[in-house]
Write a structure and sequence with these properties.
By secondary structure, the protein is α/β, with parallel strands linked by helices. It has a single domain (about 1-165), classed as Rossmann fold. The chain has helices spanning about 1-10, 20-30, 45-55, 105-115, 135-140, and strands at about 35-40, 60-65, 70-75, 85-90, 115-125, 145-155, 155-165. A 7-stranded mixed beta sheet has the order 3-2-1-4-5-7-6.
């Protein structure tokens, strides 16, 4: 599983000291109300989870690799979570480690399904022959039905905050 490559070759050696990712920073700059329920999919150090919990959010950690001790073990094409159950979903550095790019549209739909307000997608280019290559445009095209409210795009890393033009769920 490519996601295991991420865990073993990148996450285990992560030297990032920032308390939260750039995507979370962008989300907090744009969110109009406090986040109550958040899915953190991907960062096995759970720094985003810890940061948001300290702000009062209830965070559910989701990962495809059980070694990272998530609350839910699931591959992002099939998440056992009800529709619109979370205010925000963080999808941190996972796209390039999925098994095949053919899964990307399915994953994008699944992410949109489980969130009701915000979707944060973070990608970066890794120098690993097992990682999928992509262009920022390929990632953006997965979410053309959403509104991009904030983004930070560099050649090596992309951070997006999307919201829904019209989507409502009962509180």
């Amino acid at each position: 599983m490519r996601i295991r490559i991420l865990r073993e070759q990148y996450c285990a050696k992560c030297k990032i000291k920032a308390p939260r990712s750039t995507g979370v920073k962008l989300l907090l700059q744009t969110a109009r109300e406090p986040l109550r329920r958040v899915i953190d999919f991907g960062c096995s150090t759970w720094r985003n989870s810890k940061f948001l919990e300290n702000l009062g959010a209830y965070v559910v950690r989701v990962d495809a690799v059980p070694d990272s001790k998530p609350d839910i073990v699931a591959y992002p094409t099939h998440m056992p979570i009800r529709d619109g159950a979370f205010d925000a979903v963080l999808f941190t550095h996972i796209f390039m480690f999925l098994e095949d790019k053919k899964e990307w549209p399915v994953v994008a739909e699944e992410l949109k399904r489980v969130t009701k307000k915000y979707l944060v997608v973070e990608t970066y280019r890794v120098k690993n022959r097992n990682a999928l290559s992509y262009s920022p445009k390929e990632v953006e095209e997965l979410f053309t039905d959403l509104t991009s409210i904030k983004k930070h795009v560099r050649r090596d890393m992309q951070n997006y905050v999307f919201t829904f033009p019209t989507k409502s769920y009962p509180e």
